[in-house]
Amino acid sequence: MNLKKLANHLQIEENQFLELTDLFLKTTFTELTNLESALEDRHSATAERMAHSIKGAAGILGFMEIHEVAKKIESTIRENHLTDIHGTILMIREKLDLVADALQREKRNAKA
Fold this sequence. Notes:
By secondary structure, the chain is mainly alpha-helical. The protein has helices at about 5-10, 15-40, 45-60, 65-80, 85-110.
């Protein structure tokens, strides 16, 4: 994952994009935890809102794989197919980890 290319594509300065990405990761990991809690408590509307929020933020920042997975989670919740959702949630966590790794690489490169 090349965060520099994403920043250029979005016409955002690289440092600003890295800050936005850091905020996105912190917020999204929290929202994902809240989504899982809402599902455990059978609060489908709350879980759907969390998925929608993740989808929107990911799309705005150009993280389209995360956007697509969040979209799938949102529609799965809406269609009440909750038995097979945990694998999809794991998938989004893995994709977030890839973004976090890319962000750490960029931060290390900036210091070098």
